[in-house]
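On clarity, I found the account of how folds are encoded harder to follow than it need be. What matters is that the chain and its backbone geometry are given together, residue for residue. The format is easy to grasp once an entry is in front of the reader. For illustration, here is how one protein appears when written out as sequence plus structure tokens.
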Amino acid sequence: MINALPAISVLTGQPITSYPVTSPGDISGIMTSARQAAIIWAQVDTKQRAKQLACLEAVMLAELDLLTATIMAATGKVKTEVLLGEIYPVLALLRYYQHHAAQILAPCPIHTAPLEFPQARAQFERRPYGVVAVISPWNFPLQLTLSPLLTALFSGNACVFKMSELSVPVGELLVQLLARLALPEGLVQHVIGEAETGRQLIAARPDLVFFTGSVQAGRAVMALAAQHPIPVILELGGKDAMVVFADAHLQRAVKAALYGAFSNSGQVCVSIERCYVEAACYAEFVAMLVDAASAITVGHGAVGDLGALTTPTQFAVIEAHYHDALAKGAQASSPLRLEGRYLYPVVLWDVTHDMLIMREETFGPLLPVMAFTSEAHAVDLANDSDYGLNASVWSKDLSKAERVAKQLQVGNWAVNDVIKNIGHAGLPFGGVKNSGFGRYHGAEGLRQFTYTVAGLTSYSALDDEPNWFPYSEARYQAMRGFIDVMFGSGCLFRRIARNWRELQVFRAYASLNLRQHARNIWIFMFNK
């Protein structure tokens, strides 16, 4: 196993520095200190936690240029892509939880029926798991680390995170920025290494694992976590569909398709990787795509649209999908053109579902286009995938577009927009099928970093309950009558009348309930 990880700039190809790999012994110590910090942090009121974490906003804004430069060097993104795809979503989520976390995580009272639960109060509360392990990928190292990390902290957990070995400088900068907040020592910690370090982190038994990455790696994480067992949230790959009807605003849809397929050089889990276009406008739409794609600029110049491939190993997958499609009859807007790490975008059409490019995640700047003939056909094609992360539907008829979108087997959808929906801080994000399970973002996402504890408090002063020992035939008949009153046929008066004798055992409880009911009415009237 290697002892140090070199950090190389994607922009220059030159080494930046190297980082020592975290040892298994160090991970054990990190987990111990994280557990101690988690105990302290869980006792802090949610509003106070939110107030302390909100300070990160000013820290990030003060270091915006440093963040941008560090992420560009680690990923090869153009700087506008860094702002839009990495920094803005984190700031939006930070602001959302600052305002809503306390309400989302507040204890919840539950109505108790007076006959079943006399003199009782029910409620449930949410508690943090303890230590959350966040394992994040190389394509969005800041957003896909900091978003779940902040969610863990807002909900009262400690967090130990491991970034991709390609993104360590971003992780180290993140630790430095978080160190400026008034947080308990050990609350946020960074482990450094490759896949083996991730396995060691899970073996150290965190209380929840949040993993973003490939399907294959996600299955491995599940298998490791199941040994302990540890709950997991998986945000895996996508093969997102874009469905374009002939009545769509075609110029807008063309621009959206290019952005959705080619932003960050296609290295986005919610990239458009399948574009289905209604036959009536198919030829026109393809021609518009090809023409517009030729105007996209590649490189880090003043007007560069597409940056570099973060890792050259991804090119092997992209190349295989491209050549497989051509060999099976697809047409391409241009040959594959790779200059250093800069890969120029390609539109492919006349594709079919027996091609790799329509079945497997490409994660590169290829846009395959296929025709459909009806709403039902479009839905069938879009759902014919092992993935189910995001999708978009395009039509000026919004009722039709939403009708189609609601039939798609995905965790998220948008109408007449693309990718941007996942940046909505209030919307939960996650997938179905091979795209994973669990959610983050929004109220549901925050709650998934907690577990529920239910409680029932009895105020009864009686020395017995109808369901307690000793059992007898009389008690059986009483409970049988009670069930008939609660769930039997006929109006309530008839149910009570036919079980009047059996209900006498409940007289003491009924008396208590009536007195309590009268007291509640008196308090209500007095307060009015």
Notes: The chain has three domains: 19-106+121-236+444-452, 240-424, 465-523. The longest helix spans residues 79-104.
